[in-house]
Structures are given as structure tokens and as C-alpha cells.
Design a protein that fits this description.
Layout (H helix, E strand, L loop, with lengths): L2 E9 L9 E5 L2 E6 L8 E13 L1 E6 L1 E2 L2 E2 L5 H13 L2 E8 L4 H17 L7 E2 L1 E8 L19 H4 L7 H5 L11 E6 L6 H10 L3 E4 L6 H10 L3 E2 L15 H8 L4 E5 L7 H11 L4 E4 L11 E5 L2 E6 L2 E3 L12 H11 L3 H16 L16 E5 L4 E6 L2 E2 L2
Parallel strand pairs: 1-4, 5-8, 8-9, 8-10, 10-11, 11-12, 12-13, 13-14, 14-15
Antiparallel strand pairs: 1-2, 2-3, 4-19, 6-7, 16-17, 17-18, 19-20, 20-21
Helix pairs in contact: 1-2, 5-6
Length: 397
Amino acid sequence: MPRILLKTHEIHSFDDDAVRWIVIEGGRIREIRDSKPQIGDYSLIDLANSTVFPGFIDIHTHGGVGVDVNEANVEGLLKIAGFLARNGVTAWMPTLVPDSDEKYRSIIDAIDELMSIQAGKAVAQAVGVHYEGVFASAAMCGALRPEFFKTGWSAETFRSSGTASPLNEAEIIKLPRLKTGVHMTTVAPEVDGGIELISELVKQGWIVSIGHTKADVETLDRAFTAGARHLTHFFNAMTGMHHREIGVAGWGLANGAATFDIIADGVHVHPDMLGFACRAKTPEKVLLISDSVAPAGLGDGEFLLWGETVSVKDGRTRNERGSIAGSVITMNDAVKVMRAIGFSDAELARMASTNPAKLLGIDDSRGLIEAGKRADLTAVDSDGKIAFTMIGGEIVE
């Protein structure tokens, strides 16, 4: 792999300090300098009119360019990964909506295959899987299909005696797992046995996020103690705030140790509320997500998605029940919206890359621009368009 020298206008990671040169070798950042290094045998790439971010990481995307993760084979997943890469995403979590066990096994096999062949390809790198809403509240299902929710156990199941895990005995959380990678799921803690479920999932190494829920504060506190420290698409599919009943959203803002992700499309959450919530939480505790669905990248029209027709008009999705059914934005669209609200590029780098890497536990190699990290970089030009994406030292065409 050749050495590459990037000439940049500005680099953003933790602060607003500008540096000028990034030396890349072997797919990693070798050094960052204020002056041009005296090295030979390198390819020079001039990004002097762009701002360079650590590559965007999308922990919640259901698809794009006509491909739904739930229905995808490895070729379809590669198509999504290419679309994401062209829009600045360097790592992603294929996200599943509730479906049949047979469908789960099929897509997990496809993600496993993708992860075995993706290295060295200039596509967004899948780093795990996110099961959204398998353990959700039917009262807060949003666009999800409640007929596929995992239900039918009680808290007593978790308290049964025996040497084996009672959860495994009952085959309650026997979700197909990848051979390697991050496992994440969204849970409504008020479901029957939900707190014990969260505790067992955390013991088994899952990242548990709170979502699709109307849990009360006491239940949310218990879920946090059990290991659920994050909230899924903040404000959406959860109870809102009231000055006497703070709801899930109020609890998420009041709990200083919890983090949340949010869909910054200006549709799911009003721009004024986006600014208020993310400022109140601080950018150190906020992650941007796309929550994109298969029609993303295809423009307006009608599409079959999750067993029903979903219309897309002026960037807004709507299913047959009148609910918003995911988004059609990219992570860079979310960055644009947040920049227009007034967040700095340094704050955007945290929310779009650093914080997702930390949540997923992959921050040893991703999420920052510094020596030793993977050369996962996204450059945005003065018009807010993606000027350049590099993934593991490979340039996205």
C-alpha cells in the first residue's frame, strides 16, 4: 500500500486547532504535522479547500439505494456500504427491524460474509449488528412490526434455580450472533422481565440501548443500573417531557451519565429542539445517526418496505399507518443540519465519529485523527459536500 500525504485546510477531532499535513502509511495515520514532511515516494492529495473529519460512523442504518438490510444478501450489503462510503461513512452497524428467526439467521450469515471480505475494499466497514426493537413496547412500536416482538416470558423465568443461565434455558435471547464484531440491541425496559433481560444481555457482551419505550423513571433507573446506558433515536418512539412527568426523554436529559443518539434530519426532531437537547446533553454525550431506510438515495416515490408501502416526499417518509418510517438522510446530511443550528466542526466530529466509536468500543482504532489510528477520514468542502472519503488508507471513488 503506497504512502499518501494529505494536504489539508483544517482537521477536526477534539478541538479547533488546524494542522496541515497527514502522512498515511500501511492504511494508518503515521503522523500529523504543521509543516510539509521531507519524505519521498508518496502520493500527494490536496484537500486544502476542505475540512477533514474522522470518518463518520453510523450505528443505526437500515439500508439505502433500494436495499433493505433485513432482505439483503452480501451483494446487497456491499451496495449499501458503497453508498455510505460515498457519503462520508467509514464504519457502520447494519440495523435490523423485528423479523422472523429464519430471516435473522439469513442476514447474520450475510453480515458474517461481508465482514470476512470487506477488508481492503473502499466501502464502509461493517463492525457489528444492531437489532432494533426486538424487545420493544407494542405501545411505542413506531414503524416496527409488533408481531415479531420477542414476548411471552415473565420476570419469574429469570429467577428460576439451576446452574445454567435461566435465560438460555428458556431460549429467550437466543438471537443469532455474528462470528465476530459488536452486538447491540434496543430494549424497552418495561417489557415483562425487561430488567433481568438487560442484565443478562450485558453479561453476554451486548450493548443495550433504551428505546421504543414508555417506561417510568423508576424502571429507567433500574435499567441504567442493569447496564443500559444509551438511548435510541432520542425523542422518537419514547414518551416526551412534562414538568411533572419527565418521561423517557426528560430522564435521558436529566441522567448525566447516559448518552443518546438522535436523527438530525429536521423531520424526526424540530431543529430548535435538536439544538436545545444536544446543547443540554452536551456534544460529549450525543451521537448522530441516519436511521436511513432502503429508499435513501433514490429521491421521492413509493417503496415497499417492511411489508407495507412507504412514501417519500420532500425528504420525509410515511408508512400506511401515517407514521414516519425511518429517514432518507445520510450522516453528512445530519452534519449539515447540526452545523446550520450552530454546532462547531469539532463538536460535529465528536457526535458523528468519536462518540459512536466510544459507544461501540472501537475507539482504539477509529473515531479520532491521530497517529496510529486507522486512516478512516472524511473531507467536507466549503459547500458541505463530501470531497473525499478514505477507509483504511483506501480512497473511495
